Amino acid sequence: MRLIIIGLGNVGANFVKLLKDRQADLTREHHLDMAVVGVADNGGYAFCDKGLNPETIISVKQKYGTVASYPNYGAPKASITKAIEDVKADIVVDMTPTNIVNGEPGISNIKSALLSGKHVVTTNKGPLALAYKELVNLATEKHLLFKFSGTVGGATPVIDFAQKCLIGNPVTKIEGILNGTTNFILTKMFEERIQMIEALKEAQKLGYAEEDPSYDIDAIDPACKLVILANAILGKKARLQDVEREGITKVTLDDILEASKQGLSVKLICTASNELLQVKPKPIKKDDPLCVDGVLNAVSFYTKLGGTFTLIGRGAGGMEAASSALRDIINIGLTTREGH
Ligand SMILES: NC(=O)c1ccc[n+]([C@@H]2O[C@H](COP(=O)([O-])OP(=O)(O)OC[C@H]3O[C@@H](n4cnc5c(N)ncnc54)[C@H](OP(=O)(O)O)[C@@H]3O)[C@@H](O)[C@H]2O)c1
């Protein structure tokens, strides 16, 4: 399986490391042989038909800041879309930054890959939050696979669980805590009896929140994830602008303590059903399986035939998202080999 990897940041670099470390296992366990034939970052790209060395990719990126410095095969400031189209590969793995304004460069990368006959794996939420239907339809039209496990739930197989394990059992509602940073902040507010702003500072100190935390605390990140789940699992045609969204900035310590007196915890709850597409801070029962603390994520699937299933796991992290991308690639390898 010949891979092109676009984006060599936290997730992309961990993904290359994972490939290097697990290559022998993948061959032994699944009879899958993987070669990275191309890598790209903001500085340019490196392509080699015979395969690039993962260790060299990592060391060049660390030393020079861009894979375009890869000896003999690097090309600074070259057109990545053109390279995606021209290079012979099976799968394009897009790990570029989430952009919720226009979905770029992810949308162009994904379209170029599909239009030139390559399967796609992405961890980038932007293209799916803005253009889910268009991209999925293009993949279907081209008879190609398009997988995005790493966009929701980190390593926790939220999408795979619903699509594979619940097959034949319709999901009627999804409810979840889909953002670890805000869950950490709400947990800290209660545990340490502090206001949101102080808890946010702790989250920033520990590296859970960005310097500009609006993506998390204004609930943009969980809203993107909710759109992906609503479309992939409930068959909706939702976009980010369809989500009724309220972040955690107005939640006070008093709200949290008042809720606690009644056996409730305030959580940033994402809900998708026929009637609702919403992210909003809400009090939930402390013994609800959804009521997880710290950076954990939890998702409950309400089904027609089997009651409710809740999945709990670490929601983010470079290696976690990389492991989901690897799972997607293995699934593509197994599916295409079996000729499904
Ligand atoms: N980190 C997580 O825990 C996590 C979890 C799940 C999903 N995700 C998603 O996965 C994606 C990657 O996340 P990350 O944390 O790895 O981000 P990151 O550390 O910011 O890395 C992004 C990478 O994309 C490259 N890039 C930016 N613009 C590009 C362009 N026009 N063409 C080619 N490459 C470009 C950057 O290049 P330079 O290195 O040259 O700047 C960088 O290597 C994001 O969409 C994120 O939302 C992240």
Written description of the protein model:
With about 350 residues, the chain is α/β, with parallel strands linked by helices. It contains twelve helices and 13 strands. The strands form two sheets. The protein has a seven-stranded mixed beta sheet, sandwiched between helices. It starts with a strand and ends with a helix. The structure holds NADP nicotinamide-adenine-dinucleotide phosphate. NADP nicotinamide-adenine-dinucleotide phosphate binds next to α1, β2 and α12.
Structure characteristics:
340 residues; alpha/beta; 7-stranded mixed beta sheet; 6-stranded mixed beta sheet; 43% helix; 21% strand; globular; binds NADP nicotinamide-adenine-dinucleotide phosphate
- Helix content bin: 40-55%
Bound molecules: NADP nicotinamide-adenine-dinucleotide phosphate
- The end-to-end span amounts to 17 Å
Largest sheet: 7 strands, mixed
Any low-confidence stretches, pLDDT <50, length ≥5? none
Q: What is the ordering of alpha helices and beta strands?
A: EHEEHEHEHEHEHEHHHHEHEEEEH
**Computed Rg:** 21 Å
Structural class: alpha/beta
